[in-house]
Amino acid sequence: MAAPGSLSSVLDPANFPQVLKSADGRAHVELRYDVLDVNFASRFIRSPTAGANVLFLGSTRNNFDNRPVSHLAYQAYPKLALNTLLRIATEVRLKHNLERVIIVHRLGEVPIEEESIIVGISSGHRGEGWKGAEEMLERVKERAEIWKQEWFADEQNQSGQPAAIWKANKDTDQHGRSINDG
So which domain of life are we looking at (predicted)? Predict the structure, then answer.
């Protein structure tokens, strides 16, 4: 067993989920190793003053850049990542006048068709909701201290296991070019 406070203790899946909430209870962020709870996220963002609820689920697909993907794996610096996620959630909630916001990110291995991230918001109207949810997701991908490893089924390392590459937490092709730039 790892000593309390050691790096292996901080990253031990048994010490998750880890959660932070805003002082007013309107923002919830979470890191976890197990399957993400979409129903919890949906219940959290509901508000009697909200006419719009936006829930985004980022799922592992079986291919990327014309290559077969076997799974993804995520690592994070939990304390720093949680603080960054809460800052993002709070800033976006205030900027877009959102009722409630939630960000839940999975760590460890994420198989094909399972979610690695949930971003949810509630707002008075859909326009601010769509904008807020999109901005929150993009900020998470740009700023959160979460790293993605993509495992490819068509390549093996020296020990015969599927090969993996570390990627920025944003969509890039095999040459590192952003695929979101057009």
Answer: Eukaryota
